[in-house]
Amino acid sequence: MISCTRTDLGLLLLRLGTGGVLAAHGAQKLFGWFGGGGIEGTGQFMESVGYRPGKASATAAGLAETGGGTLLALGLATPAAGAAAAGAMSGAAAVHAPNGFFAQSGGYEYAASLALAATGIAIAGPGRLSLDHALGHTVNRGWMVPTALAVTAAATVAVVGARMKRLQESQEDEQEPLFEE
What we know:
Layout: H1 6-31, H2 38-48, H3 54-74, H4 78-96, H5 109-124, H6 131-134, H7 144-175
Transmembrane segments: 71-95, 107-131, 143-162
Keywords: Cell membrane, Membrane, Signal, Transmembrane, Transmembrane helix
Organism: Streptomyces flavalbus
């Protein structure tokens, strides 16, 4: 029988809640479930906010959210799961950042909260009530935490940076005069 502590129970609740929300959020993108746009609709949205190509961006975000969320809920491959989910939510936060912090104004509060929760779980570990623990932590080693977070951070910076560059170029194109005087 597994002996568990308050910390283990707390991590289980955090994993189930955060992972469940992320998995559902990703399922909206991938499958159109829960009122989502599916790959087609989400791809069009991604294009409209500067993530190109749209369908590939929708697929990547959907997989990171659905896969990362499901793995977090299960407590399996926790460093990679948390990092993937945090990266996807950081990309979402970048879209909402111009609207300020609070979600009621369309800000990045919700996305940032999910990213921080996923990162915190990746760092803290899944606790004893997890598949990682049951499998002897074969995919939850100490070195995996900084590696997963660093790789995801680098990829997120590259993707968000490319988006920002496209948006800036688009804005500059709109400001150029059509005719030279």
